[in-house]
Amino acid sequence: MDYLPHSTLLTTAEVARIFRVGPRTVHRWAVAGKLSTIRTMGGHRRYYRHEIEALVRNGFATQEGGS
Length: 67
Prior knowledge:
Elements: E1 9-10, H1 12-19, H2 23-31, E2 37-39, E3 45-48, H3 49-57, H4 60-64
Antiparallel strand pairs: 1-3, 2-3
């Protein structure tokens, strides 16, 4: 397993702020497989920063109905 520093992971709330959507929307995207996640030991989702940044560059939120 590759080691990923904490700074490369984002919380659901951080992703929601980036896309200007609610946390539930981010959760739904993750469940639908539109966002890759890992789970913490406590069961919380974390999102890869580089993937979120790539989606922002490609207009993902606009395509998905975010503002």
